[in-house]
What we know:
Layout: H1 2-11, H2 16-27, E1 56-58, E2 61-65, H3 71-92, H4 97-110, E3 113-117, E4 122-123, E5 130-131, H5 133-144, H6 149-161, H7 168-178, E6 179-180, E7 183-194, E8 197-209, E9 221-222, E10 226-237, H8 239-252, H9 257-260, E11 261-263
Helix pairs in contact: 1-2, 3-4, 3-8, 5-6
Amino acid sequence: MFSLVLTLLLLLSVSLPDAVRAREIERQPLGRPGSQPGRNPERLGAPAPGQDVVPLVVGSSIIVPDKTLERQQYQDAVYSTLLAQLASDKKLGHKNPTQWYSNYNDVTGHLGWTIETFDTFSKYQQRASKVDLSTVVSETLNSSGKLTATELAAVEKSTAALRQSVNRSPLSVFNNRSKLGKSGIFQVAVVSNDGGVLRLKFGSYYYASTVEESSVLFFPWSARSLTVYARVQVLELNEEVYNQLRSVVAQKLEKYRNLMIKPIKV
């Protein structure tokens, strides 16, 4: 198990004292009540609003839960993907989106996520003179054939809700984390519990424009001014792997959770 922790820490370039603390976590006997990493809510701190099983903005991601999810499962999906996002931002910024996503997949892979269906990025073909990126999300998720009608409806409801003034805070986080100048990287995902297996149906996007806009999803971009690439993948979590890393991930995110995770009121 320690090799998993060490690999994760090296990916995130943490200091030696952090590695020592991680090793102390690894040494704790799993059979003792409350000692299994991440299973005792008190070890993760008091539950925050962003940890509830509701749609969330998680940095540059919009994550929508299936109704069958347990709270711990949803937190696992949210925390692990946020960590991968922050690690990729730290290492690469937004200068090379394909390398950013390659690093993102590397980190999620070390956390226990495996890619069940792998797609490459393809250029979005615009059919109208103007388009907003929420429409791109809806069309690409729908055409992928990987989401159910119920899941698609939940995504559309959650993204549409971000237009409302009551969701100004999550939308601000999403815009700030998604864009850099005239380009951006963002994700839209559905988390589901399929017979006890945690799955992430994951739309990945990056774009470049000739103009700079503060609104990522809802600005009516001219077809001539915007280029978008998208792919939709399905990931599955190996919980035996993630169980060993849960506490380490929670510790690394302690100062980011309240800043990056915001509930969407739908």
